[in-house]
Amino acid sequence: MKKLLLLLFMFAVAFSLAMPLFAQETKTKTETTTTAAKKLMTLHGIVSDDGKTFTDDKDQKAWTVQNPEALKGHEGHHVSVKAHVHEDKGEIHVVSVKMMKASQKTTTKTETKTETTTAPTQ
Fold first, then answer.
1. CB–CB of 38/84 below 8 Å?
2. Spans of the chain, pLDDT less than 50
3. 91: which of 65, 86, 95, 100 fits an S-S bond (Cβ 3.0–4.6 Å)?
4. Number of H helices and number of E strands within the chain?
5. Could you tell me what percent of the chain has a pLDDT over 70?
6. C-alpha dist (Å) from residue 95 to 58, 84, 103
7. Cα–Cα distance between 75 and 91 in angstroms, integer?
8. List of long-range contacts for 92-101, beta carbons under 8 Å, 24+ apart
């Protein structure tokens, strides 16, 4: 009987020591799957003056930038970014950034000017 109790105790101790290893492995797989599931997208828009937000040209949605250091030097500029989009959080993680040329910029508002001329009276 003592041998059986000793054997059960040793099994319980071994099992409790091995459980954190299995739990850690499962957590790592879950984190990898979650990170890989985020979409890598190309967005065009304007970086805020502090570099912490990005406003998309397409729908005027403001995204919070998870890594604002990636946009350093592009504050206030019209850029094209490749980023992992976290739609549920309203955040993006910038992978690369390129300045947009003037010819590539999309206009969101168009202004028309009309000139009126009057004929001189005699």
1. yes
2. 32-33, 36, 107-117
3. 86
4. 1, 5
5. 70
6. 20, 7, 24
7. 17
8. 92/43, 92/54, 92/63, 92/64, 92/65, 92/66, 93/38, 93/65, 93/66, 93/67, 94/54, 94/65, 94/66, 94/67, 94/70, 95/40, 95/70, 97/70, 97/71, 99/74, 100/44
- Name residues whose C-beta falls within 8 Å of residue 43's C-beta, 6 or more positions apart in sequence: 54, 56, 58, 63, 80, 81, 83, 85, 92
Which residues lie across from 112 on neighbouring strands?
none
Cβ atoms < 10 Å from Cβ of 103: 5
**Site of tokens 């403001």:** 62
How is domain 37-101 classified at the CATH fold level?
Answer: OB fold (Dihydrolipoamide Acetyltransferase, E2P) (2.40.50)
pLDDT tens by residue, 39-58: 799 999 999 999 999 999 99
**AA identity, residue 79:** V
Residue 51: Cβ within 10 Å count? 19
Task: State how far the Cα of 52 lies from the Cα of 43, in Å rounded to an integer.
Answer: 15
